[in-house]
Amino acid sequence: MIGRRHFITLLGGAAAAWPIAARAQQPARVRMIGVLMNLTADDPVSHLRLAAFAQGLQESGWAIGRNVGIEYRFGAGDNELYRKYAAELVGLAPDVIMTVGGTSAGALQQASRSVPIVFVETADPVSRGLVASLARPGGNTTGFTQFEFSLSGKWLELLKQIAPGVTRAAVVRDPTQFSGVGEMAATQTAAVSFGVELTPIDARNADEIERAVTAFASSPSGGLIVVSSARALILRDVIIMLAARYRLPAIYPFRYFVSGGGLMSYGPDDLDPFRRAAGYVDRILKGENPADLPVQQATKVELVINLKTAKALGITVPTALLARADEVIE
């Protein structure tokens, strides 16, 4: 766990840009925002996401430490920690809570049906019971959903395009997460038409992933599909290392994997929803009801390819695929 004062130092760039005189002011009432993240406090991705959130707040006229305070908690992909920190944050009586992922949003709903909740990166919030509908969420919860399960079929399609010889694919997922189950099912449906045999690999810890990938790689013509989950993102360095060690073409849900040495990613801009979530937090702080704020979906999906990794794997990326890429890392 990490408290507000300590974590503000990690956001130095955003906070330092605000005028010193403005930060020194003491308004009559400082509003309180709770934040429940799904990664660890020291993960660079957490820093980027929270900086985007802080930027969005700043653009709406909020300054951390001047007219708004933030209490941070980091669940690190652990369901027990989500429940513990959800109860802690609700106990602080914040004006609104921003959270990442459907599991943490569900834990917050169990802790309170009155504190406003704004989620990001939550797959199919209607089916999992977080909202009544996308257009009219109802209750105390709304937010931004990034991944549709149909995207899982696209991951398999792109993997076959960049590595046509793949006939077997290991799907790294978190079986305890709603999205992991749904994405695995969608990938299985697509696998039939591509003639690819799927093997699920559970992303519980590094040792389990290493054993499973090592066993999978003992047979030829394999590739990796990593679906979106906090555990996979936390363990991304291990997964990227294993893909390189066993020369497995792999596709990932976020650009962070590719900038870290992974082959290819296909997914939404990961930082934009945090800036947009700040806009919803602003509207709630100014009196709007989350029940009336529609759940918004991703507006753009990006394809990122790492040519250095492709060369190391002996892969020649098709020209048509390169032309489609939003970013090529060389």
Describe this structure in words.
The chain is of the alpha/beta class. The chain folds into 2 domains: 4-146 and 270-297, Response regulator (Rossmann fold), CATH 3.40.50.2300; 151-268 and 301-329, Response regulator (Rossmann fold, 3-Layer(aba) Sandwich). Helices cover 42% and strands 19% of the residues. The chain has 15 helices and 13 strands. The protein has helices at residues 4-8, 12-16, 20-24, 44-59, 79-91, 102-111, 151-162, 178-194, 206-216, 230-234, 236-245, 255-259, 272-285, 307-312, 319-324; strands at 31-37, 68-74, 96-100, 117-120, 141-145, 168-173, 197-202, 222-226, 250-252, 264-268, 296-297, 301-306, 327-329. The chain has a 7-stranded mixed β-sheet, sandwiched between helices. α7 crosses α8 (178-194) and α9 (206-216) runs parallel beside α11 (236-245). The chain is elongated. The two termini are 37 Å apart.
List keywords for this structure.
330 residues, alpha/beta, Rossmann fold, 2 domains, seven-stranded mixed sheet, six-stranded parallel sheet, 19% strand
Q: Could you outline the blueprint of secondary structure elements for this entry?
A:
Elements lengths: L3 H5 L3 H5 L3 H5 L6 E7 L6 H16 L8 E7 L4 H13 L4 E5 L1 H10 L5 E4 L20 E5 L5 H12 L5 E6 L4 H17 L2 E6 L3 H11 L5 E5 L3 H5 L1 H10 L4 E3 L2 H5 L4 E5 L3 H14 L10 E2 L3 E6 H6 L6 H6 L2 E3 L1
Parallel strand pairs: 1-2, 1-3, 3-4, 4-5, 5-11, 6-7, 6-8, 8-9, 9-10, 12-13
Antiparallel strand pairs: 10-12
Helix pairs in contact: 4-13, 5-6, 7-8, 9-11
